[in-house]
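subagent[fold] <- orchestrator: predict structure for attached chain, return C-alpha cells only, no commentary.
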Amino acid sequence: MAFDPYGPLPTGTTVLEASAGTGKTWTIAALATRYVAEGLAELSELMLVTFGRAATQELRERTRERLTSAARGLAEPDAVHSIDALVAHLAAADRELRLARLVRALSDFDGATIATTHSFCQRMLDGLGLAGEREPNAAIVEAVDDLTVEVADDLYLQQYAGHAATVPQLSPRTARDVALQAVRDRQARLEPQGAGDTGAGQRVALAEAVRVEVERRKRQRGLRDFDDLLVLLRDVLADPHRGESAAARIRERYRVVLVDEFQDTDPVQWEVLRRAFDGHTTLILIGDPKQAVYAFRGAEVRSYLDAVRLAGTAETLSRNWRTDSGLLQTLDRLYGGAALGHPEIVVHHVEAEHEGSRLPGQPPFRLRQVLRDAPVFGGFPLLPALRTRVADDLATEMVRLLHSDAQLDGRPVLPGDLAVLVRTWKQIPFVCRALDRAGLPWVLGSSTSVFDTPSATDWLHLLQALEQPHQTGRVRLAALTPLLGWTATELAQATDEQVAEVGARLREWSTLFAGAGFAAVFERLAAQTGLEERVLRQSAGERRLTDLRHLAQSLNRAAVDDALGLTALTVWLAQRIADNSLASTADRSRRLDSDAAAIQIVTVHASKGLEFPIVYVPFGWDGACNPRPDSLLLHDASGARVRDIGGDGGPGYAGRRAIHDAEEAGEELRLLYVALTRAQSQVVAWWAPAKQASGSPLHRLLMGRTASEAAPAARVPVPADALATARLSSWASAAGASHELVDPPVSLRWRPVAAAADGLAAARFDRTLDTEWRRSSYSSLTAAVHAGAGAKGVGGAGVGSEAEQPGKDDEP
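subagent[fold] -> orchestrator:
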C-alpha cells in the first residue's frame, strides 16, 4: 500500500519501503516536522538515525531546512493555500499553535538527536551509567586493524618460530589477511571447522585465536571500536535480569524513532533497535532493499526483511521525484518485477513526478553495442581491449553530445552534467585515459583510495630511495617518479655522475628527515625540483598533484603521531598500498582535484544518494571476478553469516562457493539498479561480447529474463553478434530505448565554448545606509556618560558599571 505523508501519523513499528528517487530523507524530515508541529512529540523526544557520518550530516541539514520552511510558511496568513503541501496540511488546524511548536523546536535544534547507530549506542551507554558497563575512560577508535596485524604477527611467530615439527601452511601475509577478515567481521562464523592441521585448519585456528587476543589487548589498553559499542548495548538490553529496565530507561527519552537507510543495517543494530523500541515506541524504518549493496561491510538485507515480517504496518513510497517519465518507463521495462537476489526483494512500479523530458530530443536510454572486430581468445575479444574500446567510445560520445545543440532544462549540456559510474576502481584508469585523450575535464569522487593510485607507489619509491640512497637501483626508480621528474630517456642517457648527484640529494633529504621531519623534506623537495609547476604541465596534472599532496599530508601525520622513522614510515606506506583498509577513512578517501564543473567519475557504491542529469554506465557487461577467491562471504540455511577463510582447497569449499556466487549475483543486480537509477534524464549503457559478460548483471537482465520470470538466470551464454544485435534491438524497441552499434574508433577532442566576456567596469557603491539601526553593546550605550564623567569642567557624577579609575594629569 502506498504511504501518504499527509495521512494519519504512523504508530507502533512501521516499515516504509522506498525505491530510488522516492525521497527517503525528505519523508523522514517531513514526518519529524509533523510529529513536532502536531504536538505528538517534542524535538528532544525524537531520534533520527542513519548510517555514516556524511548521511547523518545531510539528514540534520535537511531536517533543519524542513522545520524552517514549515515555520516560515505557517507564519504567512494564507498558509492554508500554500503550494507547499506540508505547510498547507499543517495550516489546516491550530496554525498559531503549530507555528509556536516549530519555532521552539528550531530554537532547541542543536539538542536534537540525529546520529549514526554507533553514536546512538555510545549516548545510550553513557546515559545508562553503571548499567551500561562501559569503561568511562576507554578510547573510541574507528578500527583496530593495526592491533590486529600486531597480534597476527605475534601469534604466527609464537606458533611457528623455533618449532621445526610444526610446518606452517600459510605465509605471514596470509596470516594477516585472514586475521583482518576475522576481526573485521567478528559476527560471522568462520569455516571450515574441523579441518585439523591442514592449511585451511591452520587459517581458521589462527584467526579464532587472533579474535580472542585482540579482545584481550583492547581491554588491556583501554580501547573500544564502534562495533564494541553495538555489541555492548545489545548485551545490556538482552540481559535477562536488567535488560528490560535498561530498555525502559531508553524509551523514556524517545517517543518517536525514525531510521533512514535501514536496508544497510546489520543483525546487531536491528536487535538493539528491536529490543529498545519495538512494541513500546513509534519506530519507523525507511529503506530500499533494492539498494542493499554493503554486505562486505557487515550490512544484512535479511535484517530489513525480518523487520518487514515483524512490523505492524508495511507501506511503500511510490512516487519518483528524480527521474523523467520516459527514462522511468524504460527502466521499468528492464527491471520491473525482477527479484534482485531474493524473492522478497522485487522492483515495483513507481509513478513519475517529472512528465516529459528535461533533455528534449534525446532518447532516455541509449544502449550501445560493441561488435567482435577481432576475436583472439575462444571467440571473444580480450577483456582489457574491450574496456579500452568502450572507454574510448564513451569519450567520443561525450564530445559529440557537448558539441551538439542538445539542451538540458533550456541550456546547453555542460561537462558537469555528466557522470560515469564504474563498478570497481580498477575500471577507473580506462575511463580517465580516454577522457584525457579527448581533452575532457573530469574529477574523481572521493570513493577511491589514494593508496591505490600511482602517486602512492611514487612516494613508496622515493621513501625507499631515501632509506637507502646508496642503492643505485632505488635512486634510478625514484628519479623516474613525478616527485623528481626524470623521463626514461633522460635516465637512460644519464652518466654515472648525474645519477650520483641524485643520490647525494637524496642523502641530504634523508639527513633532513632525521633532523626536521617529513614535512621539511617535502617542502625542500617541492622547492628544489619545481614540483608544482612541473606536474601541472602534465596531462591530468592537477589530479596527480592533489594525490601527491594528500599522501604527503598522510605520511607527515603518521610520522608525527606515531613517531615513525624513515624505515618505519616506508613500511607503513607499503602496508597501506597492499591493503588500503588499514588507513583511516579520512586518510584514504581521495580528494577532489578541482572545483571546476567537470565530468564526475564515481564508483557505484559511492554514488548512492547522488543524482546526475546524464549517467554513463560503461561496464555493466563486465562480469570479471576472481575465479578462485581465497575468502567467501555467505549465509547458511538458518540465515547465519558465514565467512570461509580456508582457501580454495579447504573442505566444503565448492558447496559454500556455490552459495556465495548466488548471493554475489543478487548483489550485482542491486548494484546495477543503483547505477541506472542515479540518472534524471538519460542513461547511456554499453553491452560488449566479453567471455566474462555471461554473469554480468546487464547481460543477465537483457538476455536471461522474460517478462513472466522474476529472477534472471545466474549465467547466460553470450550469443554471436548477429543474434545479440537482434535481441538487443528488439528489447530497445519495446522499451522505448535507442539501440546503437559502436562505430570504429575515431579521435575527437572537446573544444569548450568560450564564454562571452562582459565589459569590465569598476563597481559602484550607491546604497543609502540607515545609520539609525545598528548592533551595539551596553558599554557603547553608556560611553558618552563615562566620557562626561571624566571630562574637566563638567559637573555631576557619571554612572557606570565599572569602577572609576583616578584620573592622571601630566600637565603642570
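orchestrator: received. Logging for downstream: Residues 365-448+595-741 form a domain with the Rossmann fold fold (CATH 3.40.50.300). The two ends are 95 Å apart (CA to CA).
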